[in-house]
Amino acid sequence: MQDPTQEKNNDTWSGRFNEPVAELVKRYTASVGFDHKLALFDIQGSLAHAQMLAACDIIRLQDLKDIQRGLGQIENEILCGEFVWSLDLEDVHLNIEKRLTTLVGDAGKRLHTGRSRNDQVATDVRLYLRSAIDDLLGLIKALQGALLDLAEQHTSTIMPGFTHLQVAQPISFAHHLMAYFEMLKRDAERLRDCRKRVNRLPLGAAALAGTSYPIKREYVAELLGFDGVCENSLDAVSDRDFAIEFTACAALIMTHLSRFSEELILWMSPRFGFIDIADRFCTGSSIMPQKKNPDVPELVRGKTGRVNGHLVALLTLMKGQPLAYNKDNQEDKEPLFDTVETLTQTLRIYADMIGGITVKPEAMRSAALQGYATATDLADYLVKKGLPFRDAHEAVALAVRFAEQRGCDLSDIGLAELQQFSTLIGDDVYQVLTLEGSLASRNHIGGTAPNQVAAAIVRARNGLAK
Ligand code: ARG
Hints:
By secondary structure, this protein is mostly helical. It has 3 domains: 110 residues, Fumarase/aspartase (N-terminal domain) (Fumarase C, Chain B, domain 1); 249 residues, Fumarase C, Chain A, domain 2; 92 residues, Fumarase/aspartase (C-terminal domain) (Ribonucleotide Reductase Protein R1, domain 1, Orthogonal Bundle). 62% of the residues lie in helices and 5% in strands. The strands form 3 sheets. A two-stranded antiparallel sheet has the order 1-2. A two-stranded parallel sheet has the order 3-4. Strands 5-6 form a two-stranded antiparallel sheet. Helix 9 links the parallel strand 3 and strand 4. The chain binds arginine.
């Protein structure tokens, strides 16, 4: 049989055209340069589709066997790096289909029965994203584990807690770390929830309206591990809300890690000197020999901008599209792939970096002592002795001014002098003015008392093990 593809490379729609696609247009419209990343998912989807076609007597069993053999060989070629991708064949789908036809003949040409690239690509992207989410959930868990390992050692390591980046109240370093654990817990929860909406099958929607073949969509869904089918064919091929939602989840994770990075950078600066980050995560300066720069957290902060940008790109890609499929959607891939890659690398490096942090408890403690961090404790002490809170606030403000003028901490002021600010003050006041007393008194769920934080760590560990 004569192969009409010998003259023209892409014969898929050439019958209707009077002239070949211009070179420039070919390059502009081709996506194989990036969507080849979907290849193994494309094969997975095709195998399930073919199996259903055979089960429904739409193709013969022999066709199915040929398709399975051909796709198996193609998979090997791809894994060995031997597969030759052709720009002339536009995208991953046509490249694989063409190779299949070369390998197995007519059976290859029958694979596309009852299917369109529109439902095919939507299926591939969902399979890709589902697998990415599963990997990312594992990486978040590893990072959470690293945070718990570090927090466990520091439930009694006192540092200043800040608001407005001014010393506010003393907290434990563990308590601070556990704040990020909580953020990551919600991040994982969001991803798991997003996965439910990703995990629906578009195949069967065909180009937009469904197909006239007696297909069984539920069977394909089951073969591919989807929770169900997309219930409207137009919606199935056109919306990329699941990718947008995922990228929003990713942007939030990056935003959390960006805030954490900003803190690591501050804490590592000699002005704070709270921590040291292992040398393997830092670089030096080509001119200033003394420098050790926190490049990794800085890049995490920087790459957050990139992921946030991808979210805006995808939202913008979608907003003006009429139903159903439009070629605009081809542009969903690069932002999505880059989001997955950036987030994957960031989470991976972050867990290692947390494991390589050296804590400097003395520097944390002396910073906590410098900012009148126990002033609220003194006010609370006065309230417990009967003074209205606003009056207590004023009395302590005056005491702080006094200490500031003298250049000492509140706990360094003698009892008689303290009593100038309120006669309610007794010698038991020094228990609340110490950093340890301040921490211990915040003894409720969510508070910084060492026993509470230790209990939070235990709960967190149990939650992670589930
Ligand atoms: N490469 C295309 C994409 O990524 C595949 C779908 C093309 N469909 C079409 N009708 N041109 O969206």
